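Entry for the shared binder. Reason: the reviewer on the internal report wants the predicted structure included alongside the sequence.
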Amino acid sequence: MTDSTVRIQGAGPVGLLTALFLLKFGWDKDAIELIDPAIHSPEPSFRNDPRVLALSHGTLVRLSQLGIDPQATRIKEIRVSSEGHFGSMQINTDRVGVSDLGGLAHYSALLGQLRETVNAVGLRIQPQSTAAADVVVIAEGGIYSAAVSDGNSGANANSDSFGETNNAMELVRDYGQHALLGWVTTTPPPGDTAWERFTADGVVALLPLGGRYALIWCCNPQRAEAFTNASQVSRAQLLDEVMGGRISGINAIELTGTYPLGLKWRETVAQGHTVWIGNSAQTLHPIAGQGLNLGFRDAQTLASCLVQRGVTITERLADYARRRRVDRWAVRTATDTLARQAWVRRAIGGVAFVPGAKRLLGQVLMYGG
């Protein structure tokens, strides 16, 4: 074994992708250690995880390079509108010259497939480290929790097992919103169009997956509570009103969870022989579905930097931090602006008439900042 030992703390999608790209770039399999304290749990929590992942076109390409097909529902068109304002914007494959704009997949399905791929290539996930490592990759963070906004860790079922990851990140913004997750059944069932609707207190996204729409509704806690407690008929009426009648034939709405929204950020992502990627480096608003895609770009770039020869580990990680600076800041700025600036809602209709705007937005959604 000639390669330095890399310990990846966190066997979620970003950590697993890091390991797979290291192998693809020629790293010694025996020099990679994957750690997940809950790996031997009787019922792995990810199997019941209700989250839906918006996978960009670039992410789907990265996965295919590793022989992974997440069986995503491909998106051909995205329609964006704003409640109470004139106009809308459609971004479709014809505008950007590709076969799809990305796809939707179940978190549990993608993670399960990634773990099967890792096992197939001979990597094993261990509950704890067995030896010192030359490189430590912190690859899991967690969903933002208001419980940590005062600097205390608090209890959060979605947080990672490595406490220092979240606590060391700076709380940049508490959006004062909750994300409602659920499923919307319609007649007829959805096709290949995703819908995004800006409202006064947040954004609603309806994403086609498996014959239903995945619902992500970002709104103030009072509205989230009222929607949760409403009857099926009232929920359908409320959603229909918010969407301006754009989604017809709503039959049922099943809610699967809710969590508070905030922006957390780690400015220094590499220190000595330790590096932070994915949700351990940034926790973003889900408004554009870019969090996991950003983490996947972290993973591939880190692997490519680590395989450099003739330079120290510290220099390789410093190179990684430099390479990721622009993309991270661009996605942070874009999602934060979309999430809280009122002018964005007012401008949706007008943006559609700006030359090149649709193509530019499509490129950002597909490939990142």
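Summary line for the report: The longest strand covers residues 170-186.
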